[in-house]
Design goal:
The chain has about 375 residues and is α/β, with parallel strands linked by helices. The protein folds into 2 domains: about 180 residues, D-Maltodextrin-Binding Protein, domain 2, CATH 3.40.190.10; about 160 residues, D-Maltodextrin-Binding Protein, domain 2 (3-Layer(aba) Sandwich). The chain contains 14 helices and 15 strands. Strands 1, 2, 3, 4, 7, 13, 14 and 15 form an 8-stranded mixed β-sheet that branches. Strands 10-9-11-8-12 form a 5-stranded mixed β-sheet, with helices on one face. Strands 5-6 form a two-stranded antiparallel sheet. A hairpin with a 2-residue loop joins strand 5 and strand 6. Helix 7 packs across helix 8 and helix 9 crosses helix 10. The radius of gyration is 20 Å and the shape is globular. The chain starts with a helix and ends with a helix.
């Protein structure tokens, strides 16, 4: 994990001077009168007002207390979030680590003043200065939630929890006597290349991969070759959580990388679904609520960031999404999460997660790596059969 926390170093060095200069000019120093609304780009399930389940509502109370109406636009991939923030019209985004540094570099988000967020001191120390939202000591957001990209599987197709990610990368006969070909899925986003690299770290150590987000030309080529083989097995590249759930229910899919969100909802419906962290470890996400550089409702945005760090919101969201709170105090005393909820969601597995980060050419582990724009074009090629 220590090496992974360094993998944003080269980007941070490039951005450091600009960040320190921008901080003084752009950072808010005091809150004004609430503007009446706040517009947020968020992952599905991240901002709930009780419409799906009345027990999960952390919007209504905020609107009553602040007078800020919450408007949400959901995005299914980090690339979609970056595109929406580039278009403008939003105040906040719940960005994962493979998007946050891109938005900082593109000046789409602004530094935040943690003095205006009283609950900042309660944030998990492992996340406070994480390199995906902190540049040269300047914070560009408040940690929101984090979690692993788990292996979701159908318990009727597997006699026991799969021990390896090989069930989605290599053709094999499963415990139900059928091949996995056409019954597995892969994530429809370039960051999935990191999942292949994570697998190769364990199974081809001779490649010398130190971080799944820092790949030289040979390591990158090996990851693409693995993904081209996976393409022969994949029935669908998923990016919509609800379509993936439908595929597990109705289209015969039995294994895929997924989020705890889908696992929890399918299990709640009584379906034979479970999840595991295989022996190779997992990639994962640590999401940050970031403030748009041209936010029209900055006071409401700051009030939302403070609200988002309350133990009640953090615990309720962790229970709903199957994620882990950015505020450790949320792990106890929450009726929906329960005192064992954080342990169940993997709070103690932090060191086993390779958190999403933006691949850059000047990388920490070996000096020269394949940058993200190549990941984008080449993964499109893989999905297209090239």
């Amino acid at each position: 994990m220590k090496s992974l926390l360094k993998s944003g170093t080269s980007v941070m060095v490039v951005l450091a001077f600009a960040a320190s200069q921008a901080a003084a000019a752009d950072m808010m120093t005091e809150l004004g009168t609430p503007e009446g609304s706040v517009n947020i780009v968020a992952w599905p399930g991240y901002i709930e007002r009780g419409e799906t389940d009345a027990n999960f509502d952390w919007v209504t109370s905020f609107e009553k207390e602040t007078g800020c109406a919450v408007n949400v636009k959901t995005a299914n991939t980090s690339d979609e979030m970056v595109a929406l923030m580039n278009e403008g019209g939003f105040d906040l985004v719940t960005a994962s680590g493979d998007a946050s540094l891109r938005m900082i570099a593109g000046k789409r988000v602004q530094p935040i003043n943690t003095d205006l967020i009283p609950s900042w001191s309660t944030v998990d120390d492992r996340l406070k200065s994480a390199p995906w939202h902190t540049v040269d000591g300047v914070h560009y957001g408040t940690p929101y939630q984090w979690g692993p990209n788990v292996l979701m599987y159908n318990t009727e197709a597997f006699a026991e929890a799969p021990k390896s990610w090989n069930v989605v990368f290599e053709e094999m006969t499963l415990a139900d006597g059928k091949s996995n070909k056409g019954r597995v899925q892969a994530y429809d986003g370039p960051i999935h290349i990191a999942d292949a690299a994570q697998y190769l770290m364990a199974h081809k150590p001779e490649l010398g991969i130190k971080s799944p987000y820092e790949l030289n030309a040979d390591q990158y080529a090996a990851a693409l070759d693995l993904l081209r083989g996976q393409r022969e097995l994949v029935s669908r590249y998923w990016h919509d959580a609800f379509i993936q759930m439908d595929d597990f229910k109705n289209e015969g899919v039995v294994a895929s990388g997924s989020w705890p969100f889908q696992v929890n909802l399918l299990k709640a419906e009584g379906l034979p679904i479970a999840s595991t962290i295989p022996e190779e470890g997992v990639t994962g996400w640590a999401d940050t609520t970031m403030l748009h550089a041209e936010a029209e409702n900055p006071t409401c945005a700051y009030l939302w960031m403070e609200h988002s760090l309350s133990p009640k919101v953090q615990g309720d969201l962790a229970a709903w999404f199957g994620s882990n709170p950015a505020v450790p105090a949320a792990c106890t005393g929450n009726a929906l999460l329960g005192d064992e909820g954080c342990a169940t969601n993997g709070f103690d597995d932090f060191e086993r997660v390779s958190f999403w980060q933006t691949p850059v050419s000047k990388c920490e582990s070996q000096g020269e790596c394949v940058p993200y724009y190549r990941w984008v074009s080449d993964y499109i090629g893989v999905i297209g059969g090239r």
